[in-house]
Amino acid sequence: MQRQKIAALILAAGYSSRMGEFKPLLPLARSHALGEAVGRFREAGIADITVVMGHRSEELAPVLDSLGVKRVYNDRYDSGMLSSVLAGVRSLGPRVEAFFLLPVDTPLFRASTIEALLRARERTGAPVVYPRCDGERGHPPLIAAAAVRDLPPPDLAGGFRAFLDRFGDAAVDVDVTDRGTVMDFDTPEDYARIRAYASRGNIPSREECRSLWSRFGVQGEVVAHCEAVAEFARILAIRLNRAGLKLDIRLVVAAGLLHDIARDRPDHASAGARALERAGYPRVARIVALHMDKGSPGSSSVDETDLVYLADKCVREDSPVSLRERFGNAFERFASRPGVLDEVRRRLREAESIRGRLEGILGESLESLLQRHARSIRSAAAGGPRDIYLVRHGEMLQQGRDRRYIGQVDLPLSREGVRQAESLGRALETVRFSAIYCSDLARSVDTARIVAEPHCLEPVAREDLREIALGEWEGLAFGEVASRYPEEFEERGRDIVHFRPPGGESFLDCTRRVLAAFYEILRAHRGNLLVVGHAGVNRILLCQAMGISCDRLFEIPQDYGCLNVIGVEDSRWEVRMLNGSPGRNGTAH
Fold it and tell me: pLDDT tens for residues 406-431?
């Protein structure tokens, strides 16, 4: 297919009202949202790019000039997205055979996705070709120009999506692992998530790794091995970075998770690397290509490829083993096959070379590291007992010294709160988490992001994990509440569980909300979880874990930045640490 006959329309005319800021020019990755979208189309070989503008067009026009793209003004932008689609389609030249249609707030598609859509159209001749990620249709669809010769009226119910739906079974879905096709940003919370995703560059997220496993039919025992390899490689990368190296932990984890993606195929390292290259992950592909035959070291240091190679040799199936154990079996098994034995010896020499360099940097033996982190490596591959790490956010930035009812007042962390979160992050950096959750209040989100950084996970913010809502009392000093609401203040003291302040919720209300969310989170994941909560939220969960009534919840201490650990096995909960911190052990129950 000739690329000069393929165009791209980027819709950037809207108000960005839910976002609160002008979405096209918000910083993102290497540029801003609009620049990122333009750059990715060009990376895929699409040169004919038109941007539909409307709201704040005077700001956008010079940016479009600097990007060297065409523009069309939609004077009816206030009537919705369909008007922008119509303006863009009418501007297409007569030689255009098909066009990609992209809202500006979905700019993180991969060039490999564009390639896949073009191949599908060439193969099928479909009027519309959609990218589909984990069963969800995304952007940008590739639309035949002939399919839009008869444009819909500007007031069509359901908009342009309804117009495209008329093609029904004639449309084609192309399954991709590209999460960028289904990530947009309508709110500040969405924007934070998409920025975190963009910071990964061409390193797949854990969700994308799972999608790749599914696409390649990777069996459960291979997944378990990859999880264990990724975990040990991650731990080694963290230790080496502490010693002064600057390894990309996200790259190490992704390569560990995907190194055996083609294990059932001949020359599986090369086969896996080729597949990952086609999927748009060249950095991971290079590591996967070398995980069986590393070759001579390029320096006296250790890089990401070294760590995945070594970790793979230190994990047999899903269990940590020493190099002597791992290779001893191979020497016995291939004793009568000299050619294979030479290969085994060479791989052992390569592993021992990496081990020597690693031990020289860390001042600790590889065997000691394996023993110290054996539980974490095994738990990475297992779905049995797990721990819930329940954290209270760090100290908030408040005005004055009066004790106040904070509730859901959205306050940021203070400097001390940031320090507390960083301390927690260091203490938990070698714990393997399958997911990290927090409330959507800033103090919880910011704490979670700091702690999550070395784990290559983006915290999931949930409104139903917020602190108790205190209604009219929120932000007021204790003394002020006692004087303005004397009867209610006394009633709260008599019945802390059922009392509901004006416009707020009771602890019973809050308990129902929080427990429903927590059990949903438990069902959604296996493995260890990190939940960054609030004092009231944490006390509710701890009451549940300790089997005590919520009317005793204020007996449970919860300092800023504290750590609680709840062991979970089947339906049994056990509190193993209460109100602990990196500087002290807390109270075990």
Answer: 888 889 999 999 999 999 999 998 88
Is the four-CA dihedral 566, 567, 570, 572 of positive or negative sign?
negative
Contact 139, 103 (CB under 8 A): yes
**What value, to the nearest 5°, has the Cα angle with vertex 109 and ends 103 and 112?**
140
Long-range (24+ apart) CB contacts under 8 A made by 261-269 are 261/212, 261/213, 261/216, 261/218, 261/226, 261/288, 262/216, 263/218, 263/222, 264/217, 264/219, 268/292, 269/293
Tokens of 519: 């059990």
Q: From CA 257, how far away is CA 206, in angstroms rounded?
A: 8
Predicted local distance difference test score (pLDDT) of residue 386:
81
Can you list the positions of beta strands (E) in 304-421? 315-316, 319-320, 386-392
Question: What CA–CA distances, in Å, run from 235 to 178, 325, 392?
Answer: 27, 21, 25
Which tokens hold the place of 72?
Answer: 């069309």
Contact criterion met (CB below 8 Å) for 424 and 563: yes
Of the candidates 438, 464, 445, the one whose C-alpha atom is nearest the C-alpha of residue 396 is 445
| Euclidean distance between CA atoms 502 and 471, whole angstroms | 6
Which residues contact residue 582 at a Cβ distance below 8 angstroms, ignoring those fewer than 6 apart?
423, 424, 426, 427, 563
Taking only the tens place, the pLDDT of each residue in 217-253 is 988 888 889 989 998 999 999 889 889 999 998 899 9
pLDDT tens-digit readout, 317-364: 888 888 888 776 766 676 667 666 777 778 888 988 999 999 999 999
Cα(458)–Cα(474) distance, rounded to whole angstroms?
30
- How far is 165 from 85, CA to CA, in rounded Å? 15
**Is 60 exceeded by the pLDDT of residue 584?**
no
Confidence at residue 399, expressed as pLDDT on a 0 to 100 scale: 66
Measured between alpha carbons, how far is 403 from 401 in angstroms, rounded to an integer? 6
Cα within 13 Å of Cα(478), Cβ side:
6
- Residue 477 tokens, joined: 């000093």
Pairing of strands 128-133, 142-144: antiparallel
Residue 226 CB-density burial (10 A; 0-12 exposed, 13-18 middle, 19+ buried): buried
Please report the beta strands in 454-562, taking only residues with DSSP state E, as ranges in sequence order.
Answer: 460-462, 529-533
Query: Environment class of residue 444 by beta-carbon count within 10 Å: exposed (0-12), middle (13-18) or buried (19+)?
Result: buried
pTM: 0.70
**Which residues does residue 388 pair with via DSSP β-bridges, in sequence order?**
529, 566
Is-contact 11 81, C-beta < 8 A?
yes
